[in-house]
Amino acid sequence: MSNKIGVIGCGWLGLPLAESLIEQDYEVNGTSTSEDKLAMLKEKGIVPFHILLSEDGIHGNIDEFLSSLSILVINIPPKLRGKGPKESYIAKIRLLHKVIKKSRVRKIIFASSTAVYGDAEGVVTEQTEPKPNTESGIQLLQCEELLKNDPELQTTIIRFGGLIGPNRHPVTMLSGRENLTGGDAPINLIHLDDCIGIIRTIIERQHFNDVLNAVYPAHPTKKEYYTKEALKRGIAAPQYTSTSGKTDKLITFCSPFLINKFKFLTTIN
């Protein structure tokens, strides 16, 4: 197989991931749902493909995209929240799974979310049983199972915590809000740079057939953390009035891979 990596979804995470892999001398195929982005991808050294997944089919040359890959990174957000029409995420991944099976690709990295744990309380590790309570979490778990349970594929699932990084931080949406509960709950976040670092380390070490929680090891309270981040940005801090009245969820990892082989690059404090 070649030294080529495929990244489905060159967006907020996928684009800088692809650029980082190119810096490490990998060849990278990348997809976008927007034809307007293809020239930009090409300028950055990414082999661009205009591919759109829908419930009805895959539009674009997916066979060519997959043809020479050694590893495929699936980084497509479910987009099942908010207003407007929504398509079934699991239906899209089932279609993608079928074409992957027809290709030579056998190593998969699937970007999932800690949303699969739903309202779990206390310390949550990879051994905690997922009990999603949102449509996104439910369909993400279905996709995990589809890929993980295929014996012909070597799939590593990464359950990312809340994503932060350039132009993306929860405090901007929380700024100025009042009477918020759960101020004593721990944060479960991870920075873009660490997301990229974890994926790169999986590829470099060929670490497949695993499920990883990917969150920063420090867990200050929401009140402490978001107050500090608001002050740093010069915006109004959110105001918390009480705790949630339950045992708060603290997501951690016990995988030896993250404990022993990956060094977090970015502090969130």
UniProtKB/TrEMBL annotation:
One of its GO terms (cellular component) is cytoplasm. GO terms for molecular function: aldehyde dehydrogenase (NAD+) activity. InterPro entries: Epimerase_deHydtase, NAD(P)-bd_dom_sf, NAD(P)-dependent_oxidoreduct. Gene3D superfamilies: NAD(P)-binding Rossmann-like Domain. Residues 11-169 form the NAD-dependent epimerase/dehydratase domain. It holds the Pfam family Epimerase. This is NAD-dependent epimerase/dehydratase domain-containing protein.
